[in-house]
Amino acid sequence: MKRLLAILAVLCVLSPVLGKAESMLFPTYAEGPGYRDALTLDAFLPLDSLKTEAAMPEDFCIDREKGITYLADTGQGRVLQMGRDGELLGVIGEGTLQTPGGVAFREGVLYVADSGKRQVFLFDEAGGLLLSISRPDHPAFGRSTGFVPRKVSADARGNIYVVSDNTPNGVLQFNREGQFSGFIGANTAQLGWVTILQRLLYTDKQKAQLLQVLPPSPTNAFINQEGLLLTVTNGIEPGVRKFSTSGNLLLEPDFPGRAMLDVAADAHGSLFGIDALGGVHIVDSLGDRVFSFTTRSEHLEVRGATKNPIAIDVDAKGDIYLLDRENASIIRFAPTEFGALVMRAVKDYSEGLYLQSEPLWRGIESKNSTFLLVNRALAQAHFKQGRYEEALKQFRLGEDRRGYSEAFWYIRNDWLQNNLGKALVIAAAAFIVLKLLLKLLKSKGLFRKDSVQNEPKFLQELRFAGHYLRHPVDGTYEIKFNRKGDVFGATVICLCCLIAIVIRKEGTAYLFRGYEAQAPNLLVVLLAALLPFALGIVASYLVSAINDGEASLRQVYVVAGYSLAPYAIITPLLTLLSHVLTRNEAFIYQFINLIAILWTAALMLIGLKEAYAYKVGGLVKNLLLTGFTMVSAVVVFAVVVMLATQEGAFLQTLWNEVMMRVKL
Amino acid sequence: MSSCKRFTLISLVALVFLAMFMLSAQAEGLSLENEALSVTVQPQGLSLTLTDKRSGAVWSHNAQEGLNKNWQTFAGSGVVINASVNDTSVKQFTFANEAVLSRSGDAILAELDFEDAGITLMVKFTLLDDGLRVQVPFDSIAETKDSHRLHNLTLFPFLGASFAQQEGFILVPDGSGAIIDLSVPTKARQPYKQAVYGEDAGFQGILAQSNLRGLRQPMQALVPAYGMNLGGQGLLHHITGGAEHASIQAYAAGITTNYNWASAVFTYRDFYNVYSSSIPDLARTVRLNQERPNAFDAQLDIYPLSSDQAAYDGMARKLRGILQQSGELQRGHSQAPALHASVLMADSYKTMLGRTLVTVTNMEQLKGIANGLHDFAGSAILEVDGFAGKGLTLQPPALTRPLANAGEWQALSQSMKDSGSILSFKRDYISVFKGTPGISRRDLSQNIASYFTELRDERNITAADTTAGYWRLLRPEASLRLAQEDLGHLENTGAEGLSLGSLGSLLFSSYGNEPQTRAEAIKVYRELLFSLQARFLSLDRPAAYAWPYADALVNLPLSASGFVIETREVPFLQLVLSESAPLYAPGANFQPNERLYLLKLLSYGMRPSYLLTGDSPSALSRTDSRWLFTSEWDVWKEHIKSHMDYLRPAFDVLHGASLDGHRMLAPGVFESSFSNGVRLVVNMAGIDYVADGLLVPAMDYELMREEGL
To answer: In whole angstroms, how far apart are CA B43 and each of B50, B59, B138, B141, B302?
Structure first.
């Protein structure tokens, strides 16, 4: 706690936002329950806006040691060198550059990508030209590949990474002497369903006529402190990818959307990205999103608003800078007390310092207890300390199912170690009592044949259902010819099945259910189960009627109803079972679920085959035609509904038009 | 020449001279004068000259320098109107003709004929003790052309305008208040423009759009006034008629022209869009002009101010005095609890089998919170919400099925009263969630496009379900009926206080069978508030029309909207209100900079607020209250204790005193002066500051007492 208070005190005095007391109309979001974006306290607030002399600038970068900003003045063919307060320190590349669209600064060298000159230029801090790189003539570059450098980045050793137009092979890599050394960070081709089908079905000749599917070219790149490459590709999701120095894909950070434009990283590996909608997203070094806030405003001219944001960078203090092309301005956002605290905790957490960062996360939790990241971090801290109950609760709040499962495993293990003996004794006692009870009932003649015949009808139906489960062929025969298993019994089983569905929806343990923001509508759930069932029975019967099937509609319904018994019996048990299983034993859950489905399907198929007196081929034909009939019925119904809706809307529109005319 | 002819000629010449004499008399204009002011109205363009005899300052609006001819006419025109042409477009008409001036008692009447627009109207000038009242009676407005209809009207837009950068400022009522510094070039491209009392939901439909990650709504202009300061002389404009249909606009030099100017625009009719179909392919957007004009007498009171009064805190003091004199603001208040806490008891969410109630604060926890607040703060307003029916979301406006029985409430209320605190029930008689029981379709307000008027809860804008988070607005009469039905229920609880949500902060026109303008709605709301006056009324961010009835003002803005044109925010609103009721800031839960929040509270003469629950709000994740991310009492009691420990030295000294003055000593350092003579210096900058020999550490405050205090 003392550490937290000390950090807060320091943040309080150091944070420059505090002196400005700005308010912000752009809310900040963090991942909340169900991985949904949820409001949180403002993490960054606009500090100032620097209007520059540039024309349509497309990129900028900050020398983090000296705080100098280099701005690509794309429209005027130069790079502006500006001080901390925006004062112009110098102009670089005037006369040399044509349309500089990308800049990077590393180890005293300014790298400029000029798409107009089709060259990459290296300058020293005073503006002296060190090197220029033109189109590589290396065979690996390709004879027809164009060289239109848009963006540039560099690592500490002076290796240069260039983003050029239409290079699906990835980012171009040059050594410090400007020699081409290969491509890195290529995207993978995006295959749609149509393409996949075309590839499966087309002949080689037809395939040759298809346009080649190429992966999209990266549109921006950044080299972080560790020398790892981050590529940005506008138009695909995920838009940002992190590669090792050897070009292996390491991470696809959680940047939302398909419109990422630029990314930057701070010294601790946290990533800061901007998208074309003005959204600023902050992601930790593990790839989990920390914050998002938007900055774009079409109508309101408020502090921190951008019109056409295009580039992002971050300085040594953790302030975020955005370049707004339309206004030719650089807007600075500084962390709030809350934002600074989170960024500090994120750094510790990313380094695996779960226990050390716990006081920080406690402080953050007091400000936002629904923050997923907070709950995950605290859960990890609890887990490391063996506080599994607390960890379980916090993993759940953090939507971390893997962690939840592990914590649950330990809790269950403890319980079993403490209670296994007792549980076994109770189970054995219950078994013996049950056996004795059955023996007693038998001795009283309850299960004798004559007493069975006198049983209430409901019990008889239940008994028959049990029989049907094991002997579907005999069971169907008895339904058809011995009038066993009636509509009442089938209806009861159908109802049990519906209840089982509801129980499963509402009662399945957290580990085996998805997150639902809104509870499903009971009626919708019931109809979703009932309608296909009813439609299937009717369709199957109608198909059989014209295909020499020998069953009545009643018999089809009864057979189908009794066939649902395995699902109705197993599902509630499965729901109960879900509460004692971990993810490690998920296969048991899935296996039992599969048994329930296969058993039900087998009963249904065997029952229908016997009921219609079909051979296997006849049954298959009936099933296919039933499927077709069902689809046709749904399509016809949908068309009728759509037409009716359109008709209604048309009449409504007509009425509205008339009323508008009257008003006009 | 015969004598007859000569006589005729002489007579004609005499007549011409007489006419010229009369015209010259007319051209000189008419004047009004009292001990403080002298006003001259010229017929040409209806130009006005206002002289402050006390300071010698002369205010006029004949700007010429750097303006083209159109703008010169605009500047010189006393009245500028916009008229709709054939209900399709809007055209501006300045007044460059001569007005017909006459006297009526102590007033000057000016008849204006906008010939091109076919619109005539009358402007009435009256002198107040130390101000000028300009009025346009609604009855005097006549539209003689079928094609032109009055859209809006601006009175003396360039009165007090200044050229380029000069010492001075424009004060705008955005949120707490903000000033536009005229001495530095603005970076803004857009002017300040805000509707007084907020936008009209009845006219615009859904105000907070359901776009993902939309902007927050800017702050409202809660006070119908703005001011201008030029070289130490000030001009306060107070809209005293038609404020509910007015907006305030302010331009800094560099936006449109090289002049700084501000004015009030009164809207009589506006355009609105309707869609012919809900199907996008069939839909056609039709722009319609408002059929029935807003009927009101536009009235603007203008007060020349000098020396201390011309500063923003002086303008606030002046406005406070005016409002107190007219009974629109109470003088002094009896109770000023140290903090305001809103406690959410329950909310519910939909399951497959109905709604499940999530109780996050039970009665035991509520009592614990009440005791804790008493220990930390001495006295508090404890507001309870979500205490009936199915919790917050579907809580009926009339109190039914409370979560605790009357006896429990009475006991809690009595114990709080004994400790000097107030138990208050949160009620909202204006906006209800969709599906709230006890509300019929007839109670619901319709917007001008004949849909139910809805508001999107912007706290839930990322909600996955589209039906969640919508409020529907009630017709004012329905609000009145519900409030009166509710009174009986509240009586049983013994609670002293009543906290009203939306009333005072949401003002909208209603359409449908019985249309009602915002002005008519205000009358009903004031009747409603009057009927509840026996209780301790807390109003949530109320606008000026509700102030006379408020015993406490909660959730008052602590900042402005942050428009680029605004140089810095100032506590104009707090200065106006601090004498009439205790002022409480927005919840501390939602402040990213906690220390800054506390310092601003002190600087603005306000008290803190908190939103609390007994349990963690994470339990609410499936309810419509899922936006609440921090409120647990066990967490927040530590914060509250430390806040009160930090604020106590100031509160002990300032108890009962109102904020009287405010000024900036250095960037980030402000001095507030209070009615008991205490001065408080707040340092919100990152470095220490020495004020009158006293060190004020960075991010801290110091009290400076006069001798004898």
So the answer is: 15, 17, 21, 18, 20
pLDDT in tens, A102-115: 999 999 999 999 99
- CA of A46 to nearest chain B CA: how many angstroms apart? 10
B562/A304 touch (CB, cutoff 8 Å), yes or no:
yes
Name which of B279, B468, B668 is nearest A649 (Cβ-Cβ): B279
Q: For residue range A35-78, what is the model confidence (pLDDT) as tens digits?
A: 778 889 999 999 888 989 999 999 999 999 999 999 999 999 99
Residue B541: CB partners within 8 Å, gap ≥ 6? B220, B222, B504, B505, B553, B554, B555, B556, B557
Asked if residues B482 and B474 have their Cβ atoms less than 8 Å apart, the reply is yes
A371 contact residues in B (CB cutoff 8 A): 629
- Give me A482's structure tokens: 């011995």
Tens digit of pLDDT for each residue in B27-58? 578 999 999 999 999 999 999 999 999 999 99
Record the tokens describing residue A13, joined without a space: 């005095």
Sign of the alpha-carbon dihedral angle for A399, A401, A407, A411: positive
**How far apart (Å, rounded) are the C-alpha atoms in residues B475 and B431?**
9
* Intra-chain end-to-end CA distance of chain B, in Å: 95
Answer whether A292 touches B (CB < 8 Å): yes
Half-sphere exposure of B329 (CA within 13 A, CB side): 27
User: Is B195 an interface residue toward A (CB < 8 Å)?
Assistant: no
CA distance from start to end of chain A: 69
Q: Does B49 touch chain A (CB under 8 A)?
A: no
For residue B452, the 8-state DSSP code is: B
**Residue B705: which residues within 8 A CB-CB, separation 6 or more?**
B653, B677, B678, B679
Rounded to two decimals, the ipTM of the complex is 0.86
B639-650 pLDDT per residue, tens: 999 999 999 999
Q: What is the pTM of this model?
A: 0.86
Looking at chain A from residue 483 to 522, which residues have their Cβ under 8 Å from any Cβ of chain B? 502, 505-506, 517-522
**Is B453:B205 a contact under the CB 8 Å cutoff?**
yes
Sheet holding B552-554, edge to edge: B552-554, B536-540, B497-500, B422-427, B380-385, B339-344, B607-612, B584-587
What is the residue whose two structure tokens read 């509402």? Answer: A506
Which of residues 380 through 399 in chain A touch B, CB cutoff 8 A? 397
Asked if B463 and A365 come within 8 Å (Cβ–Cβ), the reply is no
Beta bridge partners of A260: A275
Q: Is 50 exceeded by the pLDDT of residue B437?
A: yes
Query: Looking at the predicted structure, is the pLDDT value of residue B690 above 50?
Result: yes
The answer to whether A225 and A285 are in contact (CB under 8 A) is no
pLDDT tens digit sequence for A523-579 = 888 999 999 999 999 999 999 998 888 889 999 999 999 999 999 999 999 999 999
